[in-house]
Automatic annotation (TrEMBL):
Chain ranges of the BTB domain: 5-71
Record keywords, A-Z: Coiled coil, Ubl conjugation pathway
Pathway(s) of this molecule: Protein modification; protein ubiquitination
Native source species: Phoenix dactylifera
Segments forming a coiled coil: 487-514
PANTHER family: OS12G0117600 PROTEIN (PTHR32370)
Gene: LOC120106667
Name used for this protein in its record: BTB/POZ domain-containing protein At3g22104-like
């Protein structure tokens, strides 16, 4: 029988088909409704139909046409099931239009056998659905494929070769009770990583959420996400990179913090620095990094400052990291808090030589952590000395504000000695350090003298028995304590510091005399006035 091609179909502006209106409308409810409407072109020999959003494009339309012309004679396989199902939904090829054969019914029947599909067929089917996602999603086909794919991941054998498809694995996964979802091996199920890289970020989002709901190991999920974004960034446009980064960060944020690598998070921060990520995405990324700041290194923190910022490094970013660390309860662990304290001290030493770093930012770094974060303030003092040397033009008040971060009680004897003779440091700070050390040394001398007097009645390994009020005996053991040498060292050092205090007091007295003369003569000399330290008054 001769077929008349009286219908011209423009598919998405990509290709034009000449087909039989009668044959296609006998299967398609969409075309039948269109031809039942009155049209100016009804009298013409050839009608023209334009589709702007036909799922699958020309290839899908050609496949559907073959089905219609063969009266349903083409074979429906896992390879073409999704394509045919989506275009059948779009063209309304249901049983209301054609009782036999019915393309929607045939594709749904093919999907019922998805349990027998190979791994590669499942992945390819999901990839096809990406091209016409709305039609596939509305029919539930995507959810069905996703469910099957995640089921293979969570129950397939660990011995599957890396990057290969477990083709021999068909029905066993549905009844093998020995397979479990929990994992402790760091190389768990890596065979599927490479296969899923072909999927877009929307599909990955659905897959990961399904895996998380099925209690798949979060460490495995996070490793895949880092692998995925690394692969996608190698050959993607800026818009694709931005969407991928935002999806991955959002998914990582939903995982347990201990399963997410701090080093890898810094990697995302680095590769996405040029992208205009949403405020929410960047905030979540910084929050995840901040909560694990104790695992970071100095190199991680040395992030170049963005355009418009005068300093070399992005100090604001580090301050936000510290804030996130404290907000996440980081100070609850003294060990973690001290690790961050050491890290910030290293960072201070790195940024101190930056002549463009403003005092408020440097001060913010020095006081960002609580006092418990440092056992010693020597490293902070050294960074402050470098900063003061580089910024020699600072006023006395600005220097005082910077030095206020130093806890003199946590300075070593050597640092106190250096501070006392350092002309860059404000005199008031020097006096405070000397007084603090004087009190500390005095306390140590008193303690050692007490120990000496306490141990003098005891000889060798002898012991005494003291009777308590309640009748219990306390046995005091003691050995010979020889402390004279240590006492002499402490006394000598104390005397040296006392001399320095006396020198500073003389300077203060001289300054007060000069100020008194100026007040009497009412003479103003620019640049010669100087604030008198409070401790000298």
């Amino acid at each position: 029988m001769k077929v008349t091609c009286d219908l011209e179909v423009d598919v998405n502006g990509e290709e034009i088909f000449l087909v039989s209106k009668e044959i296609l409308s006998s299967f398609s409810g969409r075309l039948r409704k269109l031809f039942n409407k009155p049209s100016d072109a009804a009298a013409t020999k050839v009608l023209k139909v334009i589709f702007h959003d036909l799922p699958g494009g020309p290839e899908a339309f050609e496949l559907m046409t073959r089905f219609c012309y063969s009266n349903g004679g083409i074979q429906i396989t896992p390879t073409n099931t999704c394509v045919l199902h989506c275009i059948a939904q779009f063209m309304e090829m249901s049983e209301d239009v054609s009782s036999s054969p019915n393309l929607i019914e045939l594709t749904e029947k093919s999907l019922e056998g998805i349990l027998y599909w190979t791994w590669s067929e499942i992945v390819n089917a999901l990839k096809q659905c990406q091209d016409f996602f709305p039609a596939a999603n509305s029919s539930g086909i995507v959810d069905k494929i996703l469910e099957t794919l995640v089921g293979r991941i969570t129950t397939a054998s660990d011995t599957s070769p890396t990057g290969s498809s477990p083709e021999s694995f068909t029905f066993r996964f549905s009844c093998d009770t020995r397979s479990t979802v929990s994992t402790k091996n760091s190389n768990y199920r890596v065979w599927w990583f490479e296969d899923l890289v072909v999927l877009n970020s929307d599909s990955i989002k659905k897959i990961i959420k399904s895996m998380v709901s099925q209690k798949v190991d979060h460490a495995t999920v996070s490793r895949f996400l880092f692998y995925y974004i690394k692969c996608k960034f190698s050959n993607a446009t800026s818009d694709e990179k931005k969407k991928c980064a935002e999806v991955v960060v959002d998914l990582l944020y939903s995982l347990d913090r201990s399963s997410v690598s701090c080093k890898s998070l810094f990697g995302i921060l680095r590769i996405s620095s040029s992208l205009n990520l949403s405020k929410c995405c960047r905030s979540r990324l910084e929050s995840m990094i901040g909560s694990q700041l104790d695992q970071a290194t100095l190199d991680n923190l040395l992030v170049p400052a963005p355009a418009g910022m005068e300093s070399i490094y992005d100090v604001n970013l580090v301050l936000r990291f510290v804030k996130s660390f404290l907000s996440a309860g980081g100070q609850a662990s003294v060990t973690r808090l001290k690790q961050v304290g050491s890290l910030i001290d290293l960072y201070l030493a790195e940024v101190a030589p930056d002549s463009c770093l403003k005092p408020p930012k440097f001060i913010a770094l020095t006081i960002a952590l609580p006092d418990a974060a440092r056992d010693s303030h020597d490293a902070m003092y050294q960074a402050i000395v470098i900063y003061l040397e580089v910024h020699a033009q600072l006023s006395e008040e600005e220097k005082m504000n910077i030095c206020c971060a130093i806890n003199c009680e946590k300075l070593s004897v050597e640092s106190c000695k250096h501070l006392a003779w350092n002309s860059k440091v404000p005199k008031r700070t020097a006096v405070q350090a000397l007084i603090s050390q004087q009190l500390k040394l005095k306390s140590l001398l008193e303690d050692t003298n007490h120990l000496k007097s306490f141990s003098s009645p005891l000889k060798g390994n002898e012991y005494e028995k003291n009777q308590c009020d309640d009748g219990e005996q306390i046995i005091l053991y003691a050995k010979k304590l020889n402390l004279p040498m240590e006492n002499e060292k402490l006394k000598a050092h104390l005397q040296g510091m006392q001399c320095r205090v006396m020198e500073l007091e003389k300077i203060c007295k001289k300054m007060r005399t000069q100020m008194a003369k100026i007040m009497k003569t009412e003479v103003s000399s620019p640049g010669s006035s100087r604030s008198v330290p409070r401790l000298c008054s």
